[in-house]
From TrEMBL:
Its main location: membrane. GO terms for cellular component: endomembrane system. It comes from Vitis vinifera (Grape). It is a single-pass type II membrane protein. PANTHER family: GALACTURONOSYLTRANSFERASE-LIKE 9-RELATED (PTHR13778:SF40), GLYCOSYLTRANSFERASE 8 DOMAIN-CONTAINING PROTEIN (PTHR13778). It comes from the Eukaryota. Its EC number is 2.4.1.-. One of its GO terms (molecular function) is glycosyltransferase activity. Pathway: Glycan metabolism; pectin biosynthesis. This is Hexosyltransferase.
Length: 367
């Protein structure tokens, strides 16, 4: 088993075990109650939403105390811009041994989003701990980073498609647009590709100098893609046993140093060159700077649907340190963390009411 699923009324987000002393960890303001428009698909019985409901948009993300503030902001941004927020179902994967227990995290989510449809699953670290190798940044070694490898096992079999997202991003467009993207032919995942990136740098000299290993790419043209935003066909994933294919590369990495960057390279080895290319607007990544310094970076030119602070620097940390990058102020309106919130309200109102013409390069940021 790869997880111990939380019990309780589905859609209400209960898990068993733990305690309720969650306010000692974080305090969040309650989000507005976002409701469906008349054009939205009908849901099941009032007050109960099954994860098997075919009208749902499924989103999976991890949930832990270190990135909780980012997760809350990500959920808030999705609901705020969704045309049918009541048809969005969140699957949260929580760490087994997090300082805040899964029950604590569940209570925090429920108190912040009282009407949210969600389930919390407990990810057993022993599933993957013996497969993880050291990385260039310790945060990349967190077992929860590898939970995406096991979504086909963790989520209910009736969940046939899911959008996986990282916790350090905000969505500024209708998530259903991303959900409706077609995965053509037999492709298992969809993500923005970056074929101009130097693909060779993601693997070591030992990998490229081997007489056999580089042949994995012989029949495809590999391009870099960021695993922080993926549309995943779980039917094809399960049928093709892609979890095991990723684990095979992780096992080889334990014996031979063939890459440096944590959970990303195994995905590249399995999928690069066989990814459904999605518009770059759905992952404006790298806003957290590089993996060492976390320096400021601007947005890439063009329209924006999703802002992603991949890299070392996180917007909440830089804002709290009063050393924000300009793009961090685009994350700030979705932050529901309570301390100093009054100080931020005027700035948030300014951001959310600004016209697109006042934000150079962010023309499609606001809906």
């Amino acid at each position: 088993m790869y997880m111990r699923e939380g019990k309780g009324r589905e859609g209400k987000g209960d898990v068993a075990g733990g305690d309720y002393g969650y306010e000692g960890f974080f305090r969040f303001a309650e989000a507005p109650d976002y409701r469906n428009g008349e054009e939205c698909p009908a849901k099941g019985h009032k007050g109960y939403v099954s994860s098997c409901d075919p009208s749902l948009v499924h989103i999976a993300m991890t949930l832990d105390s270190e990135y909780l503030r980012g997760s809350i902001a990500a959920v808030h941004s999705i609901l705020r811009h969704s045309s049918c927020p009541e048809n969005v179902f969140f699957h949260f994967i929580a760490a087994e041994f997090d300082p805040a227990s899964p029950r604590v995290l569940t209570q925090l989510v429920r108190s912040t989003f009282p009407s949210l449809n969600f389930k919390v699953y407990i990810f057993r670290e022993d599933t993957v701990i013996n497969l993880i190798s050291s990385s260039i940044r310790s945060a990349l070694e967190n077992p929860l980073n590898y939970a995406r490898n096991y979504l086909g096992d963790i989520l209910d079999p009736c969940v046939e498609r899911v959008i996986y997202i990282d916790s350090d991003l905000v969505v500024v467009d209708d998530i259903r647009k991303l959900w409706n993207i077609t995965l053509t032919e037999s492709r298992v995942i969809g993500a923005p590709e970056y074929c101009h990136a130097v693909f060779e740098k993601y693997f070591t000299d030992e990998f490229w100098s081997d007489s056999v290993l580089p042949r994995v790419f012989d029949s495809r043209k590999p391009c870099y893609f960021n695993t922080g935003v993926m549309v995943m066909d779980l039917v094809r994933w399960r049928k093709g046993n892609y979890r095991r294919k990723i684990e095979n590369w992780m096992e080889l990495q334990r014996r031979r140093r063939i890459y440096e960057l944590g959970s990303l390279p195994p995905f590249l080895l399995v999928f690069a060159g066989n990814v459904e290319a999605i518009d770059h607007r759905w992952n404006q990544h790298g806003l957290g700077g590089d993996n060492v310094k976390g320096s400021c970076r601007p947005l890439h030119p063009g329209p924006v649907s999703l802002l992603h602070w991949s890299g070392k620097g996180k917007p909440w940390s830089r804002l709290d340190a009063r050393k924000p990058c300009p793009v961090d102020h685009l994350w700030e309106p979705y932050d529901l963390y309570k301390p100093h919130r009054n100080h931020r309200l005027n700035h948030q109102q300014m951001l959310l009411s600004a016209s697109s013409s006042t934000l150079v390069g962010y023309s499609n940021y606001f809906i």
